[in-house]
Amino acid sequence: MTEKKDLKDDRTFSAEEVNEGLLDFIRRSPNSFFAAENIAVELRAAGFEELSESERWELRPGGRYLVRRNGSSLIAFRMPGAADADCGTGGVPAFHIYAAHPDSPAFKIKPNAEIRVEDKYLKLNVECYGGMLMSTWLDRPLSAAGRLVIRDGEGVSARLVNLDRDLFVIPNLAIHMDRGVNESKSWNPQNDMLPLFAGVSAAAGGDEDEEASKDRFLRLVASEVGVEPENILDADLFLYNREPGTVFGAEREFIASPRLDDLQCLYAGLRGFLEASADASAGTDTEAGADAPGGDIPVFCVLDNEEIGSGTKQGAASDLLKNTLFRICGSEAFSAGAGEAGAPGITEAYYRALAKSFMISADNAHGVHPNDASKADPTNRPVMNGGIVIKYTATMRYATDALSGAVFRRICELAGVPCQTFANRSDIPGGSTLGTIADTQVSVSTVDIGLPQLAMHSAYETAGARDTAYLAAAARTFFSTRIRFGADGTVSIGK
């Protein structure tokens, strides 16, 4: 296949290479804790310095930084370099924000999880995290990963763990015992969706020694990280699908993988952010080598818990993004980027910066389904490999309006990538995403976009093989483009 040129200025993203990176990233990111850690590793390798929310921030002109919360959310940003005469209306830098979420629907393992069945089996007690297609988790190889909190001297410390082998199956009931399963079936998460973990034999406990088989899962997890079971004080552990992602189709035009929603948008945004950072370094001779266009500040956000409403201390409804931007505005490096004689007050600078800023909220969209096309809106029918989807709804559960939609269309034009539109059927209510939730904390012009996929919230989802590269190109262009807000309704957009 001939690779499509994705950027008009001849900076190309190879779909094959991007998909290889995406599927590897998904494999290494069984849940949000690992996704945030893997992103932090890449950012540090690119020269980003990690900050702590509990310590004073000494931000430098041209500096690159990241901050994490809860080990599952992350914000990275680049400060402007020397004062830029084209800082735009208002005289302060603007924020170019790209937000996506690292979590996907899964089963979370409950405390005291082991359940003994017939004195012969051990299964685990789990509950649903997010809204999922439960039947897709049946009869698949599963494992568990997440965060342990262990005893550490007089205190505690967190440690990631991934059991990283085929360890569980949630078995279906044979059709002979449920003849109507193909006509109608409702899945009870407490009865039908508990994973089989181990067999119990006399050697492993069995009827003769029930105590010896107690806490078998806890002991397995403890051995994985090299601690005694009693030193594990708590845990956030989730099941995940072990099946690897793949590229398929007559011309390898589709990808299938666990957790495409929303690691596909997350990975594409990361690629665009890192490439824009590299472009900025190559294009400036400042000491820090990280000047952004027009002195603006690129911000890459990983916001956890979208699948359960974002209402956590690390979610889009939290103060994480707000606090980060506010602290940036209070820094001397921000004032230097403004190019003003004397820094504006922190609150004044913050409000002025937000009025000029723009956010892309990136979360996958529903593509037209080949077996049930009637579920799609009559006139807004995105298809896989058709480009980035701009999402609209009259209820504003998507943040897109005519102005933000037009700005993003222009970004896609500059990047040389296609875009398409999504709206729900008027008789089918849709979901929500990060955009409007984040806007309640940080009010900026926002567009909700995504990549078209099938089987959203399945344990194994399908998407287009070209679309991830399209979004990476658009993100790179977004982070490298001047967006200047003038009078209400007027925006200039260009390199």
Proper CATH architecture of the largest domain = 3-Layer(aba) Sandwich
What is the quaternary state of this protein?
single chain
Gyration radius over CA: 24 Å
Proportion of residues in extended strands: 25-35%
Helix/strand/pairing category: alpha/beta
C-alpha geometry: globular
Provide the domain count.
2
Straight-line distance between termini: 31 Å
Provide a count of the helices.
10
Q: At the first level of CATH, what is the class of the largest domain?
A: Alpha Beta
Number of strands: 22
Helix content: 10-25%
CATH superfamily of the largest domain: Zn peptidases
> Strand order, biggest sheet?
1-2-3-13-4-14-18-16-17
CATH topology of the largest domain: Aminopeptidase
Residue-averaged pLDDT: 90
Indicate the low-confidence ranges by residue numbers.
Answer: 1-10, 85-89, 284-293
* Sheet having the most strands: 9 strands, mixed
Which features does this protein show?
five-stranded mixed beta sheet, Aminopeptidase i, Domain 2, alpha/beta, about 25% strand, nine-stranded mixed beta sheet, 2 domains, Aminopeptidase, 10 helices, about 500 residues
Summarize the helices and strands and which ones pair or pack.
Elements (H helix, E strand, L loop, with lengths): L14 H13 L4 H14 L3 E3 L12 E6 L3 E6 L16 E6 L5 E12 L3 E9 L12 E11 L2 E8 L33 E4 L16 H10 L6 E10 L4 E3 L5 E4 L2 H23 L14 E6 L17 H10 L2 H7 L7 H11 L1 E5 L2 E2 L21 E5 L9 H14 L3 E5 L10 H6 L5 E6 L1 E3 L6 E4 L2 H13 L2 E4 L5 E4 L1
Parallel strand pairs: 1-2, 4-13, 4-14, 14-18, 15-19, 16-17
Antiparallel strand pairs: 2-3, 3-13, 5-6, 6-9, 7-8, 7-10, 11-12, 12-20, 16-18, 19-20, 21-22
Helix pairs in contact: 1-4, 1-10, 4-10, 5-7, 8-10
